[in-house]
Amino acid sequence: MFEPGQFEVNEAWIVFRLNDAPISTGADGDFNVVCLMDAGSCYMLGNEFVPAHLAGLSESCAERLVEAGRSQAQMLPHRFLLSTALESDHFANLAERFGVEVSRVPDEQLTPLISEARAAFRGYIGGG
């Protein structure tokens, strides 16, 4: 299990689904929010709305997330922690092309790092 304070800033970035249940937009359908977060600071580096009917991240979505993180941090991390709850082969392939280590991690092990972000998002979506 990962713990806050275990990572230095930009040592590892986490890729995970921020929402608990798909977000319904009515006309445009349901979406999940995939988030890129620095494990050391818990700073949100980027997010993408992904149609809920898709199994995972598209190649273009993965590229946008990596670019959002790189533009925020002015670097890439040493390691990506990819939630196993996401189908993230495109993201893993992209990370490996950049020479960044990839670890697939169950959400239960990420919970201490991502639970606050998820709770804040629930409050935001719920209007609280």
Radius of gyration: 14 Å
Count of DSSP-assigned helices:
3
Shape assignment:
globular
Q: Order of SSEs, N→C?
A: EEEEHEHEH
Mean pLDDT, all residues = 92
Q: N-to-C terminal Cα separation, in Å?
A: 30 Å
Q: Tell me the name of the CATH class.
A: Alpha Beta
Name the beta content range: 25-35%
Helix/sheet category: alpha/beta
- Unreliably modeled segments: none
Largest beta-sheet details: 6 strands, mixed
Helix content: 25-40%
Number of β-strand runs = 6
Which fold name fills CATH's third level, the topology?
A: Nucleotidyltransferase, domain 5
How would you characterize the overall build of this protein?
- It is a single chain.
- The chain has 128 residues and is of the alpha/beta class.
- The protein has three helices and six strands; from the N terminus they run E-E-E-E-H-E-H-E-H.
- Strands 1, 2, 3, 4, 5 and 6 form a six-stranded mixed β-sheet that branches.
- The longest helix is centred in the C-terminal third of the chain and has 19 residues, at 107-125.
- The chain is globular and about 40 Å long.
- It starts with 11 loop residues before the first strand and ends with a helix.
- The mean pLDDT is 92.
Condensed summary:
The chain is an alpha/beta fold and about 130 residues long. It has helices at about 60-75, 90-95, 105-125; strands at about 10-15, 25, 30-40, 45-50, 80-85, 100-105.
Chart the SSEs and their pairings:
Layout: E1 12-17, E2 23-24, E3 30-38, E4 44-51, H1 59-73, E5 79-83, H2 89-97, E6 101-105, H3 107-125
Parallel strand pairs: 1-5, 5-6
Antiparallel strand pairs: 1-3, 2-3, 3-4
